[in-house]
């Protein structure tokens, strides 16, 4: 009851002290931020549903110009070459479904393995007792200091030596086993689970392996999910590393394909309608993935892993 | 797995079990992180084109680097990018985080702010390339509607770096704001209430309470974002390809060109080492300057 009373008092104070004008301005700024954040998404859709000739004629029209699904058809490779060229496309084939499948395979492989192996390591670093534990963990922590970009060139040389250039495994391999961040993030979380929970299970006769799978992992489901979704998004969006490793359609992922699509400028100028359609299709899976888990993730992005 | 028997956890070590649990991650660490790091340093002292074995050339690559005007130019372009990118992004992220904290606790709003981060740099680059197109972009329609001349945002030597920096602000500012927002949550609410009782306004509370108490979190975020910012590549690769006239030839783009365009892996590695040294120095310096490890709370 006391708490309720205090809140009322402060609310009264707040309304008196803070003029509504200040609050209105703050909300206006927030609205502007939301607008700048979201408008480009609308613009992608509006452009994708317009014809290229229409776009040139009405560059500022808020609605799609000459509504068409031609852009999406070109991006998905559903149009014949002549048709595509007539509508301002390059006519070059785009094995879209292949790239989509590649992206799904690579991101799934990286996410599943990386999170699982990192969680195992995090368990060993937080709950098991063994000699040299802190030294090995210190080494992992030092790994956090090496920018990813530094390891790309030597890793490419290594992947080439392993004969895995232009394969999906070659793209996945370097981040499949762990990232120092994932290990660190999960270890931090395991450390915060009260030991009693685990000891109770151990006294009940469960082995440590069982405790890890049946007690600790389920308890860590929210951070594990957050980490998994973020890892999935990161590997889906990665461009630099797949660009180095993949050369042909067999291992090309969406982000690289999109950049290739952008570079294939037809003689008449960029096929903006098709390009925006392709962009939307490439980005949509991540929007959906995020939409599904947003409620649980948004709250847990923070310094659990860093501080 | 005999170790998984029912003994109390405190009675003995778990060496063998730990080895099993650690094996995959340790393998990945050694093969794809430690080894490449050492090898990257080694390659910087060699001449290497991928086809023939690396040949030791001592400091040749570094001597070449110091005398390479394109390298220095590239470093300068990168620093200009980082300054604009981090400057704008940090201020904007801080503003968004504080607005989120003081106005509303809405998770939906936080979700919206995060959406650009779900796009790849490639997608963000292409979308803004279209919006800012000199002839057809709606951005330039707005510019002309305001009475100015069309701006060649990504086709002009002066405009291109600020434009790329701001495109990346658009993509990353929401995520940065959420990290800061999480830091703000740790500031005890009663401090604001006490300040209000004393008659302090929002502006004063921001400078006297929010900023000082957020400092350790802000420092870590700053270190992380600066390191990330120095590695800019994707946006340049899709929008300007280093041009016009090397105006956006950021270090990572130059390194990539040296390795995969001209097959000078040794020289590319030397420049990578230089970037690594710069980043380490900046991290140490920032950590010292901002006293990132210490908090003012408590």
TrEMBL record, chain A:
UniProt cross-references to SUPFAM superfamilies, sorted A to Z: MetI-like
Residue intervals of the ABC transmembrane type-1 domain: 100-293
Entry-linked PANTHER family: ABC TRANSPORTER PERMEASE PROTEIN MG189-RELATED, ABC TRANSPORTER PERMEASE PROTEIN MG189-RELATED-RELATED
Membrane-topology descriptor: Multi-pass membrane protein
Similarity field: Belongs to the binding-protein-dependent transport system permease family.
PROSITE patterns found in the cross-reference section: ABC_TM1
Any one of the GO BP annotations: transmembrane transport
Membrane-spanning residues: 24-45, 104-125, 137-159, 171-190, 211-233, 273-294
Entry keyword set: Cell membrane, Membrane, Transmembrane, Transmembrane helix, Transport
Name used for this protein in its record: Sugar ABC transporter permease
Gene3D superfamilies: MetI-like (1.10.3720.10)
InterPro entries, alphabetized: MetI-like, MetI-like_sf
Subcellular localization: Cell membrane
GO CC annotations on file: plasma membrane
TrEMBL record, chain B:
Keyword Membrane included in the entry's annotation: yes
GO biological process per UniProt: transmembrane transport
Domain ABC transmembrane type-1: 71-286
Gene Ontology CC terms, in alphabetical order: plasma membrane
UniProt name for this protein: Sugar ABC transporter permease
Membrane topology field: Multi-pass membrane protein
UniProt cross-references to SUPFAM superfamilies, sorted A to Z: MetI-like (SSF161098)
Transmembrane segments: 17-38, 79-100, 112-131, 213-233, 265-285
Protein family according to the UniProt entry: Belongs to the binding-protein-dependent transport system permease family.
Pfam annotation, one family: BPD_transp_1
Species name: Streptomyces spinoverrucosus
Subcellular location: Cell membrane
Keyword vocabulary terms for this entry: Cell membrane, Membrane, Transmembrane, Transmembrane helix, Transport
Alphabetized InterPro entries for the sequence: ABC_transporter_permease, MetI-like, MetI-like_sf
């Amino acid at each position: 009851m006391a708490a309720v009373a205090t809140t009322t008092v402060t609310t009264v104070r707040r309304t008196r002290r803070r003029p509504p004008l200040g609050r209105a301005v703050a909300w206006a700024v927030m609205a502007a931020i939301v607008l700048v954040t979201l408008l480009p998404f609308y613009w992608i859709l509006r452009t994708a549903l317009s014809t290229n000739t229409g776009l040139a004629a009405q560059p500022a029209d808020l609605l799609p110009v000459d509504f068409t699904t031609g852009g999406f058809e070109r991006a998905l490779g559903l149009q014949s070459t002549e048709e595509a060229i007539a509508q301002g496309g390059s006519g070059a084939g785009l094995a879209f479904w292949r790239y989509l499948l590649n992206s799904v395979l690579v991101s799934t492989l990286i996410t599943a393995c990386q999170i699982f192996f990192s969680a195992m390591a995090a368990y060993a670093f937080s709950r098991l007792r063994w000699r040299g534990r802190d030294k090995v963990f210190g080494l992992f922590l030092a790994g956090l200091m090496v920018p990813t970009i530094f390891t790309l060139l030597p890793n490419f040389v290594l992947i080439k030596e392993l004969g895995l250039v232009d394969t999906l495994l070659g793209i996945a391999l370097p981040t499949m086993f762990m990232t120092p961040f994932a290990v660190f993030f999960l270890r931090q979380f395991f450390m915060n689970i009260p030991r009693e929970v685990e000891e109770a299970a151990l006294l009940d006769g469960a082995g440590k392996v069982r405790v890890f799978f049946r007690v600790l992992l389920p308890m860590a489901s929210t951070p594990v999910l957050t980490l998994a979704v973020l890892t999935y998004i990161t590997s889906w969006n990665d461009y630099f590393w797949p660009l180095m490793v993949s050369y042909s359609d067999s291992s090309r992922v969406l982000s690289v394909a999109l950049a290739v699509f952008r570079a294939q400028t037809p003689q008449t100028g960029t096929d903006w309608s098709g390009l925006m359609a392709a962009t939307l299709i490439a980005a949509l899976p991540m929007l959906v993935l995020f939409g599904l888990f947003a409620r649980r993730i948004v709250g847990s992005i923070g310094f659990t892993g860093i501080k | 797995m005999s170790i998984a028997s029912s003994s109390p956890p405190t009675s003995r070590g778990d060496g063998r079990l730990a080895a099993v649990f650690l094996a995959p991650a340790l393998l990945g660490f050694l093969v794809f992180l430690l080894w490449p790091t050492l090898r990257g340093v080694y390659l910087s002292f060699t001449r290497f084109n991928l086809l023939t074995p690396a040949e030791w050339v001592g400091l040749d690559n570094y001597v070449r680097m110091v005398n390479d005007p394109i390298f220095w130019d590239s470093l300068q372009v990168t620093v200009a990018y980082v300054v604009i990118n981090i400057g704008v992004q940090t201020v904007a992220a801080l503003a968004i985080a504080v607005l989120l904290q003081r106005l509303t606790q809405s998770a939906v709003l936080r979700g919206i702010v995060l959406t650009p981060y779900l796009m790849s740099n490639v997608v963000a680059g292409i979308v803004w390339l279209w919006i800012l197109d000199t002839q057809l972009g709606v951005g330039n329609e707005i510019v002309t509607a305001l009475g100015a001349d069309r701006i060649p945002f990504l086709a002009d030597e002066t405009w291109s770096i600020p434009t790329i920096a701001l495109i990346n602000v658009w993509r990353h500012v929401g995520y940065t704001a959420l990290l800061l927002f999480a830091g703000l949550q740790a500031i005890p609410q009663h401090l604001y209430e006490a300040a209000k009782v004393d008659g302090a306004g929002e502006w004063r509370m921001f400078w006297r309470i929010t900023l000082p108490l957020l400092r350790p979190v802000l420092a870590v975020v700053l270190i992380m974002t600066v390191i990330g910012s120095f590695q800019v590549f994707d946006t340049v690769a899709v929008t300007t390809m280093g041009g016009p006239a090397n105006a956006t030839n950021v270090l990572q783009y130059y390194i990539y060109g040296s390795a995969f365009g001209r097959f000078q892996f040794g020289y590319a590695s030397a420049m990578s080492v230089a970037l690594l040294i710069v980043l380490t120095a900046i991290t140490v310096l920032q950590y010292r300057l901002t006293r990132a490890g210490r908090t003012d709370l408590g």
